[in-house]
Structure prediction request, 226 residues.
Amino acid sequence: MNNFAVAIDGPSGAGKSSLARRCAQELGFLYVDTGAIYRTVGLAALRRGIDRKDEAQVAAILPELDIALRYEDGEQRMFLNGEDVSREIRLPEISLCASDVSAHAAVRDYLMETQRRLAREHRVIMDGRDIGTVVLPDAPLKIYLTASAEARAERRMKELAAKGVEQSFEEVLREIVQRDEQDMNRLVAPLRRAEDAVLVDTTEIDFEESFRLLCRIIRERMEAQA
Prediction:
């Protein structure tokens, strides 16, 4: 089949991006990291010094942003007005910036068609916080990927350390809990599990086990849809 969409939702630090990217490589899908798109908008808002919680201020800068997704060696890279910001958007402070701007309907509407077009034209694995509930409600496979806040904090610490960013466990955990609170209680497209989403809790299993489990779920659903 030419197009098949896998929608993966879940809280911050659950491993959505890493697992979705690895599964896409394994199965020959296009990986779409929607969180990176929102992080790019968040970075733009931070650089401009505007109030990220003010929808009018954020909406006003959207027409001035040239946000591009490019794929290099199978990896999605983000460009803001021609600048490769793939590394900068992963800094810890950008996580909350992304959460702030993604709460605005104007931002979500601005980016919605880009995401849906990719799903229409390709076999995609798309991850985020409202993919199965809002962006691709008719996706043939929806997965809600989660883990305990403590497990997610441990994993995020290791990721940051690998990039040379040092943060204490307490600080990382506090940011994750704060992000969860923001994402689950925002008025527009809050984070929640779609009714027909497969629940995958990775608290007690490692990355390789999670990867094999997700690939098996995807293959089985594709065979059932064939």
Summary: The two ends are 8 Å apart (CA to CA). The longest strand covers residues 4-9. The beta strands are 4-9, 30-33, 67-72, 75-80, 83-84, 123-128, 141-146, 198-201. The first helix runs from residue 16 to 27.
